[in-house]
Amino acid sequence: xxxxxxxxxxxxxxxxxxxxxxxxxxxxxxxxxxxxxxxxxxxxxxxxxxxxxxxxxxxxxxxxxxxxxxxxxxxxxxxxxxxxxxxxxxxxxxxxxxxxxxxxxxxxxxxxxxxxxxxxxxxxxxxxxx
Amino acid sequence: xxxxxxxxxxxxxxxxxxxxxxxxxxxxxxxxxxxxxxxxxxxxxxxxxxxxxxxxxxxxxxxxxxxxxxxxxxxxxxxxxxxxxxxxxxxxxxxxxxxxxxxxxxxxxxxxxxxxxx
Lengths: 130, 118
Description:
Largest sheet of chain A: 2 strands, antiparallel
Oligomer: heterodimer
Distance between the termini of chain B: 46 Å
Number of strands of chain B: 0
Radius of gyration of chain A: 22 Å
Number of helices of chain A: 4
Helix content of chain A: over 70%
């Protein structure tokens, strides 16, 4: 049977054609930074079990320029994930109702953003002063 | 009909998505940026005895395990499904590698948290 030559639209770099897809890819890329950050924490936990010298060496490694650049990029992309996570929450969360009526989308999204701000403030206070 | 295991991984993805949306930015900012450069966060805040005490406490153990494990499960789910977007049509092997590495990270974290004592 002859091979049918059908035109296949090239998909190379498809996401660069539209700002909406660029934002989608940035959000998806945040997961790579999140995974690496989780591994950095796991290594830190391992170093903690080895004693004070190992823990201090882990902390010293985090002051290197490459580590700081990584964490700035991680903060930007994972921060964007946090922003979008609550933005889509009205569509992904279970049907939330108050007095029989669905909660307004802005209440769910705004509530999520406030929860992130509140949790962030709480964690900062605990780590710094408690 | 073969039962799908997708609900399990989607639940872990969702739980990791919520937890990371709540606490990941501030954790990255503190442990990776302001504590290392010593701005707005004194060095003693992450001193050995202090963090050790946190990791030996029940609440601290639960927090650390949840953060490491759920961040990993959330991330590998997105990476695995995102492979398609960059033209890699991954099969079962990639799926096992993705969720397997998250499960391995979870087991290692749990083991370290037990080894570190109470």
